[in-house]
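quick one before i forget lol
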Amino acid sequence: MRKRSHAKRRQARPVRKATDLQVEEFERRDLGKDLEASGMGVLIRPRSRPTSILLDEQLVEQLRRKGAKRGLGYQTMLKVIVREHLHEY
């Protein structure tokens, strides 16, 4: 009896690097629920929705200067201003 030739040859599996078990566990699990359930976690940055807004270059430069004084970028500075003053409108 003849051996059948395979039309598709098996591809060699990529060589897997040995990794630390703790790193594997960290990458495998989403720890957000664990932190939330423990009550010990602090939300640093809530999820935000991307938006788009057109700003004059002069306004962007003013935001950059104001933000630099606080160690912030212009977009973050804009968010701070909106958050602090939205209740006024």
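fyi Helices lie at 21-28, 32-38, 57-70, 74-85.
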